[in-house]
Amino acid sequence: MTDVTRREFIGGMSMAAACAAFGTAAAEGPQPAVLPSKSHLEWADQEIGMFFHFDIPVFKPRWRWRTFRNLPGPELYNPAKLDIEQWMAAAEAIGAKYVVFVAKHCSGFLQWQSDLYPYGLKQAPWRGGKGDLVREFTDAARRHGLKPGLYASTTANSFLGADNPGRVKAKGWLGAPSPETQKRYAKICEGMAEELWSRYGELFEIWFDGGALAPSAGGPDLIPILEKHQPDAILFGGPKDAKNLIRWVGNERGVAPYPCWSTNGRPTQDDGTKEFRYPGHPDGKVWCPGECDVPLKPGCWFSTDRGRYWTPDELMTMYLHSVGRNCNLLLNCAPMPDGSVAEEDMKRYAAFGKAIRVRYAHPLGRTEGDGATIELPLAKDAGPAGQVVLAERLQYGERVREFGIEAFDGGKWTKVYSGSCIGHKHIACFPPVRAARLRLSVGKAAGRPAIREFSAWRVS
Ligand code: IPT
Protein backbone atom coordinates (compact mmCIF):
# COMPACT_ATOMS: atom_id res chain seq x y z
CA MET A 1 0.00 0.00 0.00
CA THR A 2 -0.13 2.17 -1.49
CA ASP A 3 0.17 4.84 -3.92
CA VAL A 4 -1.41 7.73 -2.14
CA THR A 5 -0.05 7.04 1.32
CA ARG A 6 3.44 6.75 -0.08
CA ARG A 7 3.07 10.30 -1.32
CA GLU A 8 5.23 9.72 -4.30
CA PHE A 9 5.02 12.63 -6.61
CA ILE A 10 5.52 12.65 -10.33
CA GLY A 11 6.14 16.13 -11.62
CA GLY A 12 3.60 17.47 -9.13
CA MET A 13 1.25 14.52 -9.67
CA SER A 14 0.68 11.88 -7.00
CA MET A 15 1.75 8.35 -7.93
CA ALA A 16 -1.92 7.32 -7.91
CA ALA A 17 -2.90 10.10 -10.26
CA ALA A 18 0.07 9.28 -12.44
CA CYS A 19 -0.90 5.60 -12.55
CA ALA A 20 -4.42 6.57 -13.52
CA ALA A 21 -3.13 8.93 -16.16
CA PHE A 22 -0.52 6.60 -17.60
CA GLY A 23 -2.53 3.48 -16.86
CA THR A 24 0.15 1.31 -15.35
CA ALA A 25 2.84 0.46 -12.85
CA ALA A 26 1.62 0.70 -9.30
CA ALA A 27 4.30 1.60 -6.78
CA GLU A 28 5.86 -1.46 -5.18
CA GLY A 29 8.84 -1.74 -2.83
CA PRO A 30 11.51 0.96 -2.64
CA GLN A 31 11.11 3.55 -5.34
CA PRO A 32 13.65 5.62 -7.24
CA ALA A 33 14.80 8.56 -5.13
CA VAL A 34 13.95 11.16 -7.73
CA LEU A 35 11.83 11.49 -10.85
CA PRO A 36 12.24 13.55 -14.00
CA SER A 37 10.40 16.83 -14.53
CA LYS A 38 7.99 17.26 -17.42
CA SER A 39 10.74 19.10 -19.30
CA HIS A 40 13.15 16.22 -18.69
CA LEU A 41 10.65 13.70 -20.08
CA GLU A 42 10.05 15.75 -23.18
CA TRP A 43 13.78 16.35 -23.66
CA ALA A 44 14.64 12.65 -23.47
CA ASP A 45 12.03 11.83 -26.09
CA GLN A 46 13.69 14.15 -28.62
CA GLU A 47 16.84 11.96 -28.55
CA ILE A 48 18.81 13.85 -31.21
CA GLY A 49 19.69 17.53 -31.44
CA MET A 50 21.94 19.58 -33.66
CA PHE A 51 24.47 22.10 -32.36
CA PHE A 52 25.52 25.07 -34.53
CA HIS A 53 28.98 26.55 -33.99
CA PHE A 54 29.51 29.75 -35.95
CA ASP A 55 31.35 32.78 -34.58
CA ILE A 56 33.56 35.65 -35.67
CA PRO A 57 36.88 33.69 -35.37
CA VAL A 58 35.93 31.77 -38.53
CA PHE A 59 36.80 35.04 -40.33
CA LYS A 60 40.26 35.10 -38.70
CA PRO A 61 41.04 31.41 -38.27
CA ARG A 62 44.49 31.65 -36.72
CA TRP A 63 43.39 33.96 -33.91
CA ARG A 64 43.18 32.44 -30.41
CA TRP A 65 40.65 33.92 -28.01
CA ARG A 66 42.80 33.33 -24.92
CA THR A 67 45.33 35.91 -26.10
CA PHE A 68 42.66 38.56 -25.31
CA ARG A 69 44.30 40.74 -27.99
CA ASN A 70 43.91 41.51 -31.67
CA LEU A 71 40.30 40.37 -31.70
CA PRO A 72 38.75 39.83 -35.15
CA GLY A 73 37.09 43.13 -36.02
CA PRO A 74 33.29 43.19 -36.50
CA GLU A 75 33.88 44.46 -40.06
CA LEU A 76 35.05 40.93 -40.98
CA TYR A 77 31.65 39.40 -40.22
CA ASN A 78 29.72 39.14 -43.48
CA PRO A 79 28.53 35.59 -44.24
CA ALA A 80 27.06 36.34 -47.67
CA LYS A 81 25.70 32.84 -48.29
CA LEU A 82 24.14 32.26 -44.91
CA ASP A 83 20.89 30.48 -45.64
CA ILE A 84 19.17 29.47 -42.43
CA GLU A 85 16.97 27.02 -44.35
CA GLN A 86 20.06 24.99 -45.17
CA TRP A 87 21.01 24.89 -41.49
CA MET A 88 17.58 23.51 -40.66
CA ALA A 89 17.88 21.00 -43.51
CA ALA A 90 21.10 19.71 -41.91
CA ALA A 91 19.26 19.17 -38.61
CA GLU A 92 16.34 17.48 -40.32
CA ALA A 93 18.71 15.22 -42.24
CA ILE A 94 20.03 13.59 -39.07
CA GLY A 95 16.56 13.33 -37.54
CA ALA A 96 17.22 16.06 -34.97
CA LYS A 97 14.21 17.31 -33.06
CA TYR A 98 15.95 20.30 -31.48
CA VAL A 99 18.67 22.75 -32.45
CA VAL A 100 21.09 24.76 -30.30
CA PHE A 101 22.79 27.86 -31.69
CA VAL A 102 26.01 29.24 -30.23
CA ALA A 103 24.84 32.85 -29.89
CA LYS A 104 27.97 33.94 -28.01
CA HIS A 105 31.10 31.83 -27.82
CA CYS A 106 34.48 32.54 -26.18
CA SER A 107 35.29 35.52 -28.43
CA GLY A 108 32.44 37.47 -26.82
CA PHE A 109 30.95 38.45 -30.21
CA LEU A 110 27.18 38.93 -29.84
CA GLN A 111 25.23 37.46 -32.75
CA TRP A 112 22.06 39.37 -32.08
CA GLN A 113 20.98 43.03 -31.77
CA SER A 114 22.48 43.70 -28.37
CA ASP A 115 23.17 46.93 -26.52
CA LEU A 116 25.47 45.37 -23.92
CA TYR A 117 28.79 46.29 -25.53
CA PRO A 118 30.04 47.28 -28.99
CA TYR A 119 31.15 43.88 -30.29
CA GLY A 120 28.42 42.16 -32.20
CA LEU A 121 26.08 42.26 -35.17
CA LYS A 122 25.21 45.95 -34.65
CA GLN A 123 28.83 46.72 -35.52
CA ALA A 124 29.04 44.28 -38.46
CA PRO A 125 28.34 44.92 -42.15
CA TRP A 126 26.14 41.81 -42.42
CA ARG A 127 22.50 42.77 -43.16
CA GLY A 128 23.57 46.43 -42.86
CA GLY A 129 24.24 46.15 -39.12
CA LYS A 130 20.63 45.07 -38.55
CA GLY A 131 21.26 41.34 -38.60
CA ASP A 132 19.97 39.17 -35.79
CA LEU A 133 21.09 35.58 -36.24
CA VAL A 134 19.40 34.50 -33.01
CA ARG A 135 16.10 35.78 -34.41
CA GLU A 136 16.60 34.11 -37.80
CA PHE A 137 17.63 30.87 -36.11
CA THR A 138 14.82 30.62 -33.56
CA ASP A 139 12.18 31.65 -36.13
CA ALA A 140 13.43 29.12 -38.68
CA ALA A 141 13.59 26.35 -36.11
CA ARG A 142 9.95 26.87 -35.17
CA ARG A 143 8.88 27.00 -38.82
CA HIS A 144 10.50 23.58 -39.23
CA GLY A 145 8.97 22.13 -36.08
CA LEU A 146 12.40 22.00 -34.42
CA LYS A 147 12.73 23.16 -30.82
CA PRO A 148 15.18 26.09 -30.56
CA GLY A 149 17.89 26.34 -27.95
CA LEU A 150 20.73 28.78 -27.32
CA TYR A 151 24.29 28.62 -26.08
CA ALA A 152 25.76 31.74 -24.48
CA SER A 153 28.55 30.95 -22.06
CA THR A 154 29.21 33.19 -19.08
CA THR A 155 32.48 31.38 -18.37
CA ALA A 156 34.63 32.97 -21.07
CA ASN A 157 34.65 36.22 -23.05
CA SER A 158 37.78 37.42 -24.82
CA PHE A 159 36.39 40.91 -25.55
CA LEU A 160 35.77 41.41 -21.83
CA GLY A 161 38.91 39.60 -20.64
CA ALA A 162 37.02 36.78 -18.88
CA ASP A 163 38.09 33.14 -18.69
CA ASN A 164 36.93 29.97 -16.93
CA PRO A 165 35.03 29.80 -14.70
CA GLY A 166 33.77 33.31 -15.50
CA ARG A 167 36.35 35.61 -13.93
CA VAL A 168 37.86 38.73 -15.47
CA LYS A 169 41.51 37.75 -15.72
CA ALA A 170 42.85 39.97 -18.50
CA LYS A 171 42.45 43.57 -19.56
CA GLY A 172 39.43 43.80 -21.83
CA TRP A 173 36.80 46.34 -22.77
CA LEU A 174 35.77 46.64 -19.11
CA GLY A 175 39.33 47.47 -18.03
CA ALA A 176 41.91 45.64 -15.97
CA PRO A 177 40.82 42.83 -13.63
CA SER A 178 39.48 44.19 -10.33
CA PRO A 179 36.51 43.55 -8.03
CA GLU A 180 34.77 46.40 -9.85
CA THR A 181 35.31 44.91 -13.35
CA GLN A 182 34.18 41.51 -12.03
CA LYS A 183 30.92 43.10 -10.83
CA ARG A 184 30.38 44.78 -14.18
CA TYR A 185 31.13 41.52 -15.97
CA ALA A 186 28.51 39.68 -13.89
CA LYS A 187 26.00 42.44 -14.71
CA ILE A 188 26.73 42.06 -18.42
CA CYS A 189 26.18 38.29 -18.16
CA GLU A 190 22.84 38.94 -16.50
CA GLY A 191 22.02 41.40 -19.30
CA MET A 192 22.90 38.79 -21.88
CA ALA A 193 20.61 36.30 -20.20
CA GLU A 194 17.84 38.89 -20.00
CA GLU A 195 18.11 39.71 -23.73
CA LEU A 196 18.41 36.14 -24.98
CA TRP A 197 15.82 34.58 -22.72
CA SER A 198 13.15 37.30 -23.00
CA ARG A 199 13.17 38.20 -26.70
CA TYR A 200 13.05 34.94 -28.64
CA GLY A 201 10.17 32.97 -27.20
CA GLU A 202 10.34 29.69 -25.40
CA LEU A 203 13.74 28.04 -25.47
CA PHE A 204 13.96 24.28 -25.28
CA GLU A 205 17.56 24.04 -24.10
CA ILE A 206 20.06 26.55 -22.74
CA TRP A 207 23.75 25.74 -22.78
CA PHE A 208 26.03 26.93 -19.98
CA ASP A 209 29.34 25.73 -21.32
CA GLY A 210 31.53 24.84 -18.37
CA GLY A 211 28.86 25.74 -15.81
CA ALA A 212 28.25 29.15 -14.27
CA LEU A 213 30.19 30.89 -11.52
CA ALA A 214 28.02 31.10 -8.40
CA PRO A 215 26.79 34.61 -7.39
CA SER A 216 28.52 34.12 -4.02
CA ALA A 217 31.81 33.81 -5.91
CA GLY A 218 31.20 36.94 -8.00
CA GLY A 219 29.21 35.27 -10.77
CA PRO A 220 25.92 36.42 -12.33
CA ASP A 221 22.61 35.81 -10.54
CA LEU A 222 20.87 33.81 -13.27
CA ILE A 223 18.22 31.76 -11.52
CA PRO A 224 15.72 34.65 -11.08
CA ILE A 225 16.09 35.48 -14.80
CA LEU A 226 15.56 31.84 -15.71
CA GLU A 227 12.49 31.58 -13.52
CA LYS A 228 11.06 34.74 -14.99
CA HIS A 229 11.55 33.97 -18.69
CA GLN A 230 12.45 30.30 -19.23
CA PRO A 231 11.16 28.24 -16.30
CA ASP A 232 10.83 25.08 -18.43
CA ALA A 233 14.09 25.20 -20.36
CA ILE A 234 16.52 22.31 -20.06
CA LEU A 235 19.89 23.54 -18.78
CA PHE A 236 23.19 21.99 -19.83
CA GLY A 237 25.59 22.58 -16.95
CA GLY A 238 23.24 25.18 -15.51
CA PRO A 239 23.46 26.89 -12.11
CA LYS A 240 23.69 24.35 -9.31
CA ASP A 241 20.29 25.01 -7.73
CA ALA A 242 18.30 25.40 -10.94
CA LYS A 243 15.80 22.78 -12.09
CA ASN A 244 15.73 20.86 -15.38
CA LEU A 245 19.47 20.22 -15.37
CA ILE A 246 21.33 17.96 -17.76
CA ARG A 247 25.00 17.08 -17.62
CA TRP A 248 28.08 16.54 -19.77
CA VAL A 249 29.18 12.91 -20.27
CA GLY A 250 32.89 13.68 -19.93
CA ASN A 251 34.08 13.68 -23.55
CA GLU A 252 33.42 15.29 -26.92
CA ARG A 253 33.39 11.99 -28.81
CA GLY A 254 29.62 11.54 -28.58
CA VAL A 255 29.75 8.43 -26.41
CA ALA A 256 28.42 7.91 -22.91
CA PRO A 257 29.87 5.39 -20.48
CA TYR A 258 27.73 2.38 -19.61
CA PRO A 259 25.88 2.50 -17.35
CA CYS A 260 24.93 6.16 -17.58
CA TRP A 261 22.16 6.84 -15.05
CA SER A 262 20.01 9.96 -15.30
CA THR A 263 20.38 10.55 -11.59
CA ASN A 264 23.34 11.81 -9.73
CA GLY A 265 24.62 12.65 -6.29
CA ARG A 266 24.89 16.22 -5.17
CA PRO A 267 25.98 18.40 -8.01
CA THR A 268 29.54 19.48 -7.49
CA GLN A 269 30.27 23.05 -8.36
CA ASP A 270 33.96 23.56 -8.27
CA ASP A 271 34.37 27.29 -8.58
CA GLY A 272 31.45 27.44 -10.97
CA THR A 273 32.55 24.75 -13.37
CA LYS A 274 29.95 22.16 -12.90
CA GLU A 275 30.86 18.59 -13.71
CA PHE A 276 28.64 15.78 -12.48
CA ARG A 277 30.16 12.35 -12.14
CA TYR A 278 29.90 10.92 -15.61
CA PRO A 279 28.18 7.54 -15.08
CA GLY A 280 25.76 9.11 -12.59
CA HIS A 281 24.43 7.11 -9.67
CA PRO A 282 21.23 4.99 -9.68
CA ASP A 283 20.22 6.31 -6.25
CA GLY A 284 21.32 9.89 -6.85
CA LYS A 285 19.06 12.67 -5.57
CA VAL A 286 19.28 14.93 -8.62
CA TRP A 287 17.72 14.13 -11.98
CA CYS A 288 20.37 15.30 -14.41
CA PRO A 289 20.71 13.06 -17.51
CA GLY A 290 23.65 13.17 -19.90
CA GLU A 291 23.92 14.83 -23.29
CA CYS A 292 26.68 13.72 -25.67
CA ASP A 293 27.99 16.70 -27.64
CA VAL A 294 30.24 15.98 -30.59
CA PRO A 295 31.49 17.74 -33.74
CA LEU A 296 31.29 16.08 -37.19
CA LYS A 297 35.10 15.94 -37.28
CA PRO A 298 36.90 14.98 -34.05
CA GLY A 299 37.92 18.13 -32.15
CA CYS A 300 36.63 20.51 -34.87
CA TRP A 301 33.79 22.63 -33.53
CA PHE A 302 34.28 25.36 -36.16
CA SER A 303 34.50 24.90 -39.93
CA THR A 304 37.96 26.45 -39.95
CA ASP A 305 39.36 23.77 -37.59
CA ARG A 306 41.23 21.18 -39.62
CA GLY A 307 40.58 17.46 -39.24
CA ARG A 308 39.16 14.28 -40.71
CA TYR A 309 35.52 13.24 -40.59
CA TRP A 310 34.17 10.59 -38.27
CA THR A 311 33.46 7.56 -40.46
CA PRO A 312 29.85 6.40 -41.00
CA ASP A 313 30.57 3.41 -38.71
CA GLU A 314 31.92 5.68 -36.00
CA LEU A 315 28.79 7.83 -36.28
CA MET A 316 26.55 4.78 -35.89
CA THR A 317 28.53 3.64 -32.86
CA MET A 318 28.05 7.13 -31.48
CA TYR A 319 24.30 6.81 -31.89
CA LEU A 320 24.29 3.40 -30.18
CA HIS A 321 26.48 4.70 -27.35
CA SER A 322 24.57 7.94 -26.75
CA VAL A 323 20.87 7.55 -27.52
CA GLY A 324 21.33 3.81 -26.94
CA ARG A 325 22.83 4.52 -23.53
CA ASN A 326 20.12 6.67 -22.05
CA CYS A 327 21.52 10.03 -23.26
CA ASN A 328 20.72 12.51 -26.00
CA LEU A 329 23.07 13.07 -28.92
CA LEU A 330 23.93 16.66 -29.87
CA LEU A 331 25.81 16.52 -33.18
CA ASN A 332 27.47 19.70 -34.36
CA CYS A 333 27.08 21.59 -37.63
CA ALA A 334 29.90 24.02 -38.49
CA PRO A 335 28.89 26.46 -41.24
CA MET A 336 31.72 27.87 -43.35
CA PRO A 337 32.76 31.56 -43.23
CA ASP A 338 30.29 32.33 -46.05
CA GLY A 339 27.54 31.01 -43.76
CA SER A 340 26.75 27.92 -45.83
CA VAL A 341 27.16 24.30 -44.79
CA ALA A 342 29.69 22.32 -46.85
CA GLU A 343 28.10 19.94 -49.38
CA GLU A 344 30.23 17.10 -48.00
CA ASP A 345 28.90 17.77 -44.47
CA MET A 346 25.33 17.77 -45.80
CA LYS A 347 25.92 14.41 -47.48
CA ARG A 348 27.27 12.90 -44.28
CA TYR A 349 24.35 14.18 -42.23
CA ALA A 350 21.93 12.70 -44.76
CA ALA A 351 23.73 9.34 -44.76
CA PHE A 352 23.80 9.19 -40.97
CA GLY A 353 20.10 10.02 -40.66
CA LYS A 354 19.23 7.44 -43.30
CA ALA A 355 21.35 4.76 -41.61
CA ILE A 356 19.40 5.23 -38.37
CA ARG A 357 16.03 5.20 -40.15
CA VAL A 358 16.87 2.06 -42.11
CA ARG A 359 18.22 0.26 -39.05
CA TYR A 360 15.00 0.85 -37.12
CA ALA A 361 12.41 0.58 -39.90
CA HIS A 362 11.05 -2.95 -39.36
CA PRO A 363 11.01 -4.55 -35.92
CA LEU A 364 11.02 -8.33 -35.68
CA GLY A 365 8.69 -7.92 -32.76
CA ARG A 366 7.65 -5.28 -30.29
CA THR A 367 5.88 -5.28 -26.94
CA GLU A 368 5.61 -3.46 -23.62
CA GLY A 369 4.59 -4.38 -20.12
CA ASP A 370 5.22 -4.24 -16.41
CA GLY A 371 6.83 -6.70 -14.07
CA ALA A 372 10.02 -8.68 -13.68
CA THR A 373 9.73 -10.78 -16.85
CA ILE A 374 8.34 -9.87 -20.22
CA GLU A 375 8.26 -12.15 -23.23
CA LEU A 376 8.49 -11.04 -26.81
CA PRO A 377 7.27 -13.49 -29.45
CA LEU A 378 9.03 -13.19 -32.80
CA ALA A 379 7.41 -13.99 -36.14
CA LYS A 380 8.31 -17.44 -37.56
CA ASP A 381 10.14 -16.06 -40.57
CA ALA A 382 11.58 -13.16 -38.60
CA GLY A 383 15.22 -14.00 -39.22
CA PRO A 384 18.00 -13.56 -36.69
CA ALA A 385 17.75 -10.81 -34.09
CA GLY A 386 20.95 -8.92 -33.31
CA GLN A 387 19.70 -6.07 -31.20
CA VAL A 388 17.02 -5.24 -28.72
CA VAL A 389 15.68 -1.81 -27.87
CA LEU A 390 14.51 -1.34 -24.29
CA ALA A 391 12.83 1.71 -22.80
CA GLU A 392 11.40 2.37 -19.36
CA ARG A 393 8.29 4.40 -18.67
CA LEU A 394 10.55 7.15 -17.50
CA GLN A 395 7.89 9.08 -15.61
CA TYR A 396 8.35 6.48 -12.86
CA GLY A 397 12.07 7.00 -12.76
CA GLU A 398 14.86 4.57 -13.52
CA ARG A 399 13.64 1.44 -11.81
CA VAL A 400 15.59 -1.27 -13.60
CA ARG A 401 19.01 -1.84 -12.05
CA GLU A 402 20.01 -5.23 -13.52
CA PHE A 403 18.51 -7.22 -16.36
CA GLY A 404 19.18 -10.05 -18.77
CA ILE A 405 17.87 -10.95 -22.22
CA GLU A 406 17.39 -14.61 -23.16
CA ALA A 407 16.46 -16.28 -26.41
CA PHE A 408 14.27 -19.40 -26.72
CA ASP A 409 15.26 -21.61 -29.61
CA GLY A 410 12.65 -24.32 -29.10
CA GLY A 411 14.54 -26.38 -26.54
CA LYS A 412 15.93 -23.99 -23.98
CA TRP A 413 16.51 -20.40 -22.94
CA THR A 414 19.96 -19.01 -23.63
CA LYS A 415 21.27 -15.76 -22.18
CA VAL A 416 22.29 -13.38 -24.95
CA TYR A 417 22.83 -10.13 -23.05
CA SER A 418 23.03 -8.68 -19.58
CA GLY A 419 22.89 -5.05 -18.59
CA SER A 420 22.13 -2.61 -15.81
CA CYS A 421 20.67 0.80 -16.74
CA ILE A 422 17.79 1.08 -19.24
CA GLY A 423 16.26 4.49 -18.55
CA HIS A 424 14.90 6.35 -21.54
CA LYS A 425 16.46 3.92 -24.02
CA HIS A 426 18.97 1.13 -24.06
CA ILE A 427 20.09 -0.49 -27.29
CA ALA A 428 21.48 -3.96 -26.60
CA CYS A 429 23.58 -5.45 -29.40
CA PHE A 430 24.61 -9.13 -29.41
CA PRO A 431 25.64 -11.79 -31.91
CA PRO A 432 22.53 -12.51 -34.04
CA VAL A 433 20.30 -15.35 -32.79
CA ARG A 434 17.36 -17.18 -34.35
CA ALA A 435 14.66 -17.43 -31.73
CA ALA A 436 10.94 -18.00 -31.40
CA ARG A 437 10.79 -15.76 -28.33
CA LEU A 438 12.95 -13.36 -26.40
CA ARG A 439 12.62 -12.75 -22.68
CA LEU A 440 13.54 -9.74 -20.61
CA SER A 441 14.25 -10.67 -16.98
CA VAL A 442 14.79 -7.87 -14.51
CA GLY A 443 16.94 -9.19 -11.67
CA LYS A 444 17.14 -6.04 -9.62
CA ALA A 445 14.83 -3.05 -9.58
CA ALA A 446 13.62 -0.15 -7.45
CA GLY A 447 9.86 -0.74 -7.69
CA ARG A 448 7.99 -2.67 -10.30
CA PRO A 449 9.69 -2.50 -13.70
CA ALA A 450 7.61 -0.48 -16.14
CA ILE A 451 8.73 -1.10 -19.70
CA ARG A 452 7.39 1.07 -22.49
CA GLU A 453 9.29 -0.73 -25.23
CA PHE A 454 10.87 -4.15 -25.69
CA SER A 455 11.58 -4.66 -29.37
CA ALA A 456 13.90 -6.82 -31.44
CA TRP A 457 15.72 -5.89 -34.63
CA ARG A 458 17.90 -7.32 -37.33
CA VAL A 459 21.39 -5.85 -37.78
CA SER A 460 22.12 -5.12 -41.40
C1 IPT B 1 34.04 20.99 -21.36
C2 IPT B 1 33.45 21.57 -20.12
O1 IPT B 1 34.28 21.34 -19.01
C3 IPT B 1 32.12 20.92 -19.87
O2 IPT B 1 31.49 21.52 -18.79
C4 IPT B 1 31.23 20.98 -21.08
O3 IPT B 1 30.80 22.29 -21.27
C5 IPT B 1 31.99 20.48 -22.28
O4 IPT B 1 33.16 21.18 -22.44
C6 IPT B 1 31.19 20.62 -23.55
O5 IPT B 1 31.78 19.92 -24.55
S1 IPT B 1 35.53 21.74 -21.74
C7 IPT B 1 36.05 21.00 -23.25
C8 IPT B 1 37.27 21.70 -23.68
C9 IPT B 1 36.28 19.54 -23.11
What does this structure look like?
The chain has 460 residues and is α/β, with parallel strands linked by helices. It folds into 2 domains: 38-359, TIM Barrel; 365-457, Galactose-binding domain-like (Jelly Rolls, Sandwich). Helices cover 21% and strands 25% of the residues. It contains 9 helices and 24 strands. The strands form 7 sheets. An 8-stranded parallel β-barrel has the order 3-4-5-8-9-10-15-16, surrounded by 4 helices. A 4-stranded antiparallel β-sheet has the order 17-24-19-22, with no helix packed on it. A hairpin with a 4-residue loop joins strand 20 (400-408) and strand 21 (413-419). The longest helix has 21 residues, at 179-199. It is globular, with a radius of gyration of 23 Å. 1-methylethyl 1-thio-beta-D-galactopyranoside is lined by residues 209-211, 237, 248, 252, 275, 293. 1-methylethyl 1-thio-beta-D-galactopyranoside (IPT) binds next to loops.
Tell me, what is the CATH class of the largest domain? Alpha Beta
CATH superfamily of the largest domain: Glycosidases
Low-confidence stretches: 1-26
Radius of gyration: 23 Å
Terminal Cα span: 47 Å
Q: What is the SS-derived class?
A: alpha/beta
What amount of the residues lies in strands?
A: 25-35%
Largest sheet: 8 strands, parallel, barrel
Choose one word for the global shape: globular
Task: Give a count of the beta strands, DSSP E runs of length 2 or more.
Answer: 24
The order of strands across the largest sheet is 3-4-5-8-9-10-15-16
Discrete helix count: 9
Roughly what is the average pLDDT, rounded to an integer?
A: 92
In helices, the fraction of residues equals 10-25%
Present as ligands are: 1-methylethyl 1-thio-beta-D-galactopyranoside
The CATH topology of the largest domain turns out to be TIM Barrel
The CATH architecture of the largest domain? Alpha-Beta Barrel
